[in-house]
Amino acid sequence: MFVLIARSFVFGIALLLAGQAQAQAPATVPPERVKQLFELLDDPSVKAWVAEQRNQDAGSTGAPAEAGASPTDASSGAVAAPGQMNTMASSTLDRIRHHIERIVRTLPLLPGQFARVRAETMDDMSSKGAAGVFILIAMFIAAGLALTWATYRLTRSFRLWIIAQSKDTPIGRAKKIGGRALYSSMLIVSFALGSAGAFMLFDWPMLIREIVLTFLMAAVVTRGVRMYVMAMLVPSFMKVENAVEVRALPITNETADHWSYWLPWIVGVFAFFAAAFILLPGLGIDQDGMMVLSLGADFVLLLLLLLAIWRRPGTQRDGARQSGHTEATWLLTAYFVVLFLQRIAGLYTYFWFTFAAFFLPLAIVLTRRGVNFVLRPGSEDVGRPTIPAVTIAVVDRGIRMILILAAAYFLARVWGLNMQSMRDSDTTTAFILRGLINVVVIALAADFGWSIIKALIERKLGIEMPHPVTSDEDVPILDSQQARLHTLLPILQNMLLALIVVMAVLMMLASMGIQIGPLIAGAGVVGVAVGFGAQTVVKDVISGVFFLLDDAFRVGEYISSGNYKGTVESFSLRSVKLRHHRGPLFTIPFGELGAVQNQSRDWVIDKFNITVGYDTDIDFARKLIKRIGLELAEDPEFKNWVLDPIKMQGVQEFGEYGIVLRVKATTRPGGAFGMKRKFYVRLRQVFKEQGIELPFPTVHVQGLQNPHGAENAPLEEITPELKMAVAQSHTNRRRKKASTTE
């Protein structure tokens, strides 16, 4: 705060120096009526009217403009010479030239204006003087700091409550940031009451009251910005434990320290200049003088911004990150230089648009990063608590909407747009602006509604997603209702998105004065024509609707239809995607599915055969199979899949080389494959231990008739290839017979 005192002291010295300069340069202030005439001729609406009248005169008489035209008209750019086109570019250049001429014309007059301000100010402050005013400001700033210190001492319990909040949960981090913001507000209010509030308790001369109170409010603004920046960024000099995790933005300590230092400085200088510019018109500085002084203030702010940008720490000091950091620095430098040049040229409309075009997206991006960072899931130590996605979406989109509406209102104010007059006006410009405002409001409302709907659907899908087995009690399957949601919600999401987009576009067109009735009727006619021309697509869509209504299959289920089989992965409005168990992905239109066989609904029965020798005790084999089935049913790997353990149904048939036993198991869909493989391994081991033989086909060749009429073929002619062919023939015949019996 003592920096503000020093700035006020420098301002007083500048006033004194201006008085000395006045003694050397006499004041030549133009008459007031002449100044009003210049301001009237500088009005864009007056320029446009004069240009229209001159063009009409030139077109009707064919003569050049009168020689007696004023120089101001010639320099304003509103009047085009004969044979030339009065374009927007030339008019803008003429306005820039005229603005710069005003600056050059006003510069020699500033010392005289400052001398007059000094004389009038000294007359009104004869009892106090400049030094007395500085002392008053310093005294009340010190009083504000004293009350702030007392508030700090009395709120120790609240600070301890903020420190006690958990940094490992999103709610705890939000409470920490909210508590720090509330605590900063308390300190700011204390400073304002101790400084400006205490000053207003006394009766002061009007001029002293205005000067001291204005600069005290500038000190309050600077103090407030510093407190809020520290509350959000938590710089390292605050000595906060785990500061990186409890900040409002995901930034490093170096970045937090940098902006915690420079932002209060920039805002403090801006607040000081703003306080001075509030006071100077009442002290006698005219509009042109204020314009020239504002350029000096802009130059000082530009230097501070460039220093802050060039001294900001980078993410990394080597490699591509450092190159990107340097490029961003140069781009920011060029941006702020362009802003400064626009101020010099007097292009205030373009200046505010350029200003908002950068800072509004920056604020939106920082808001999104801050919300996602503060409300991120908690740590593993506390069970990773989370905030519902709907809450995050509402907070993010709500702040974004507020920022956009605030920016639009700010631009309307600085551009001098009156909403009431725009609503009552019938001009083309007012009509376009009304339409643009309505379009922005509708787009924001649509985005806000869609973000909430999307968050609700994603939350539902995220909660119901299948999870890996972590204990014996977990069932690694989807509930029927969950699978139903996974099937219908993505389709519902796409339909709602299309509906919101269509409704938003129609409302935007209606707000701009376009009749949407004929558009809707035309769209209906086009829809009928497209329906007749794309009957296959319509058939696919309608078939898909009925498949979903019949609940024929769901996402994650294994189905087969005709030549297609696989697991259902996703849907669209006209087709379904099936992933074959070997990897290929089929995209099948609903109209081509036909009858669907669902192999993943409720339960499945798997039946298979086991062949034992003819000398095997069937009852003993049945008991062994039952025992193995019960063991597998209690195995943690298969426990949650088994509905009815593996057991023998009886003798299926007498085969060519053994007795065929029929075995079956009832499981949940998808659970029989691994258990069946393990059952075979376990059965072979147990049968071998109990002496039960598992027969297999063998070939015994007694002899072959040779072409020479020998009764038996020689043993050398029975080759291994011949034995393999005969064995393969027996195996194929056995498999074919087994498949037909099943």
Automatic annotation (TrEMBL):
Keywords assigned: Cell membrane, Membrane, Signal, Transmembrane, Transmembrane helix
Residue span, Mechanosensitive ion channel transmembrane helices 2/3 domain: 495-535
Pfam families xrefs: MS_channel_1st, MS_channel_2nd, MS_channel_3rd
Residue ranges of the region described as Disordered: 53-80
Membrane-spanning parts: 130-152, 181-202, 208-229, 262-283, 289-310, 347-366, 387-411, 431-453, 491-510, 516-538
KW DNA-binding (keyword) present: no
Domain Mechanosensitive ion channel MscS C-terminal: 607-694
Subcellular localization(s) per the UniProt record: Cell membrane
SUPFAM superfamilies: Mechanosensitive channel protein MscS (YggB), C-terminal domain, Mechanosensitive channel protein MscS (YggB), transmembrane region, Sm-like ribonucleoproteins
InterPro entries in alphabetical order: LSM_dom_sf (IPR010920), MS_channel_1st (IPR049142), MS_channel_C (IPR049278), MscS_beta-dom_sf (IPR023408), MscS_channel_2nd (IPR006685), MscS_channel_C_sf (IPR011066), MscS_channel_TM-2 (IPR011014), YbiO_bact (IPR045276)
Signal peptide (from-to): 1-23
Keyword Membrane part of the UniProt annotation: yes
Membrane topology: Multi-pass membrane protein
Occurrences of domain Mechanosensitive ion channel MscS (ranges): 536-601
Domain of life of the organism encoding this protein: Bacteria
Family designation: Belongs to the MscS (TC 1.A.23) family.
Record's protein name: Mechanosensitive ion channel family protein
